[in-house]
# Entry
Amino acid sequence: MKFINYLAVITFVVSFGCKKEQTAEVKKEVTSVKQPNVIIVMTDDQGYGDIGAHGNEIIQTPNIDQLHEESVHLTNFHVGTTCAPTRAGLLTGKYSNRTGVWHTVGGYSLLREEEETLANVLNDAGYQTALFGKWHLGDTYPSRPMDKGFQYAAYHGGGGIGQTPDIWKNDYFDDTYFVNGKPKKFEGYCTDVWFNEAMSFIENNKEKPFFCYLALNAPHSPFNVPQEYYDLYKEAPIPESMKRFYGMITNVDDNLKRLEDQLERLNIEDNTIIVFMTDNGTSAGYTVKNGKVYGYNANMRGTKASEYEGGHRVPFFIKYPNGNIKGGKDVNELTAHIDVLPTIASLCNVDISKRDLDGTNITGLLNGNEKSLSRDYLITDTQRIQTPEKWKNSSVMSGSWRLVNREELYNIAEDAGQEHDISDKYPEKVAKFQEYYEEWWSNISSSFDDVPVIKVGTENQNPVEFTCHDSHVHDSHIAWNQNFIRKGERNAYEGYFELDVADEGTYEIEISRWPLDIKKPINAGLQDGIEATQIRDEIFNGKAFNFKSGGISLGDYSERKPIADNSISIKFERSLNKGRIRFNTWFTNLEGKNVGAYYIKISKK
# Structure
């Protein structure tokens, strides 16, 4: 770090040219230099090609482009292929599969209790820490942002606004979000809100070192966007969804300018590490319809959730003038999201030598002190199932070489689109890649049976409210979005929740068809769909359901109760012992068909 070098030089000169007392005096002055601030801006579902500076000729991103000019850019930077896995890897410095996060729903988007994050690291070093936007690593203790080192957190529920754990009827405009776990009403468009809150946090902490994690939900679907940003692309020769998608990104771009202007006004720009990145490949910035290509994907194969390059190679720009990280320089070495924690810790002069991480400190690459990285391989994959499978949707990377799905070999230096499998020409290289993956899998799979838990009976969160979003069942049976709930779809009762009872005692368990706070009877239809406009996605109105009873199971115990007229929920009471237990819920209709409860509340009495 530049500060450390500066200290060494001054101490050397003074010790030979001044008295001993003067040496101590100068050293004290230099060591009082403030640690750098850290801001990570991460957008959601924006791909490598969804930026003007990367060659997209339609999208308008002048401020991201300007940051690109002022930053060091990692041109061979990789993440997970979907939302939660990238977040887990970014914040822990570990492969997400190791942390219990290999899905976006189904109980495997919850960060395990023992995992610590970059916020924990910086919090312990005296930083003020805050999250704004999308957490997507658990909505219940011990996986919430407040449980993982963030002193302040303003965020939506689940993996996106309008998903099941989110506040009912949120639609990106004038929503209610969670602030340290409590609902709070906000005015304005979601991205504007996140930036407003972040800038307020920065203003209030400008005299202290801070870590601001701006994890935006834009441009994730639904593609709801302010009219003026949609109008920028209204006449563009691209599909309707792409117009909205691009409009959301340009809104991010304008907000980024506001943020950078604030740093300059507060005179903390030079001592602030700014990172801009995205969480996976594009979701809506590239498509082919009737043989015609729309959008831009930098000649890569694959988009979001793909094991091919376009699914996980993303932008990464970093600027830190006081650390000599600036100037529009490319770094072409193979790097990844798991490198961010050790690198930020190094730049902030925080010792993490006792932490067992998968990532590598790449400070030397960023400031130009090193030309290469001692790394042989990186791995990314797309699991999205209850139990990970070896080689499933995987990419083993080394330099410009990619082994995909165990058998396909590509050299992206000569074949950027991964069109030509050359595994038959390099059998020895394939064998080496396979050998590395086998060792990696053997190491990382040892914790797969450690199911992330929802803890009940703690002082940290009582009562605990959760939803079918985190039910352990195949994702095609999970009502992860509020639209499924409006339609009464997709909630298999075979799913279970992994509870960890922190304290033995009597617990009240409440199950419901609708969110408890809207006070709708279980068998009532819901006719309060959000108004559909040109900009907002269509919302489906609900219909009536004829459920006659509901029940729960806890381990070997089960209980069923009839549904009273106009009842909004069914309540059960049960004594629970301390420890883990599997929990299941269901409603039964007049035809005898069971579906899982959508909403659950557990209180220790």
About this structure: Residues 240-265 form the longest helix (26 residues). Residues 501 and 579 are 5 Å apart (CA to CA). The mean pLDDT is 91. The two ends are 53 Å apart (CA to CA).
